[in-house]
Amino acid sequence: MIRGTSAAGSIGVIGLLIFAAAGLGQQHVGSDDSPQFPPQAFVYAGEQALLTCNGLFVSGRTLEQLYAAELKLDLMPLASPDDVRIDRERKTVAVNENGKGAGPTMRAAYREGLGCVVMGADQTFADLDKLPILKMPGPGGDPSKLRWPDGDLVESKPLPNYIDTRALDAAADFAFDRKARGHASQITISLMVVHKGDIVLERYAPGVDVTTKTRTWSTAKSIAGTLIGIAAGEGKLKLDEPLPFRNWGPGQDRVPDSDPRTQITLRNVLNMSSGLYPVDSSVNAYIAGSPQGYFGGASTVLGALNRRLVRPPGEIFDYENYDSILGIYALKTALGDYKKYLEFPRRALLDRIGMRNTIPGVDRFGDYVLSSQVYTNARDLARFGLLYLNEGVWKGERILPESWVRFARTPAPSTRDRGHFYGGQFWLVPDELDDLPQDAYSTNGSRGQYTIIIPSYDLVIVRRGEDWLSDDGFSNWDLARQVLKAFPKRQGGEKLK
């Protein structure tokens, strides 16, 4: 997710113009004598409520840990801890519920199978039963007794003698000792290196272990793309056909075939090239963009649909959370049945490859927010990387079409003039970085969430972070360089065309 840079305060003329141009907006209303707050104030309060709720009841972290790490964000003004009400029995969090008027009240609640859900500004905890829930038995077997990668039982064995262990340890030091390298805002909480299916390096920060689940941010997009690819392999979706819905716009009315948005394909949105009005790349994202759905209690789907076409689909790259949301909405439309949709991530992917610690989240309307809202741990992301390293096959069973793996790694046509850096919901090695294997590709989430896949070296590298300055990001490709020093130089590894 691209975080906005607008500070809390009045919307201003530019914000109002963006509202008008995009046809977006979330109205927050109260009684005539209640305090009036700008739209981003609801987003900030909702973000604090949601991150606190998930941190406590999904990650299992303490409130002290959350304030020191997950809630430490350069762009989010925090309500005082005295203004945060936590109900550990009901697993709910309310921010600014004390009625002092310091900020709007926003609430989040834990829901079985889905993690925490941010509620609407007009809702109270009396509305808990209106929120979605997923009651679904977990996969069988005790993961502590199942061998890696299906489970967490890791066999201790010596590393291959061709791996330079000192270089591997140095790569881990590079990832964790960021303050000594002048990057105090880069906080690595876990690092894994998997080679030929075996874990050859695994390290955690204090207070973090193999069970710790944290938010993936936009690494979730790669998981979303995978679910869509599985559905495509089942014949439910096609890359180069128009998206399977016609209910564009705020009224959700079916638009005529002459509406140019009906020509946007699945490939277009997964390549971040829909041609729709950009909102998240603007400094006003927290007013009119996807954060309104992530944290403000708005519908993520309505926000994604309520955009006009401003350029031909497929021509211009523009990184938008809403493009990924459109891909997931296409999946929901294709599945047809809501229960099947809600169970699909587990049945199609997570349970099949041992991702037992992964919880995809929804908005309060029951739509998956798979552009950002997933909680998981390092080992599950390593399993996810292994699925791609093995060309979509898990233990001899094809999970994902090989053609979809190729699509994920193929540069989006809209990036041809900018270095071929993006594929199908994965990031690619830019053309100018010719010292790296060109076949490498990576997930990429805010705060430094990376799963790097390097086929020519049979490697998966997972780095989880809690970086807190948006303009001082940890580089996944610098990390790849460091790890590769531990392995013999390979030939090949060309970028897909």
How would you characterize this protein structure?
With 497 residues, the protein is α+β, with helices and mostly antiparallel strands. Among the domains are: 165 residues, DD-peptidase/beta-lactamase superfamily (Beta-lactamase); 94 residues, no CATH class. Helix content is 28%, strand content 12%. The chain is built from 14 helices and 15 strands. The strands form four sheets. The chain has a six-stranded antiparallel sheet, with helices on both faces. It has a four-stranded antiparallel sheet with strand order 1-2-3-4, with helices on one face. A hairpin with a 3-residue loop joins strand 3 and strand 4. The longest helix has 19 residues. The relative contact order is 0.15.
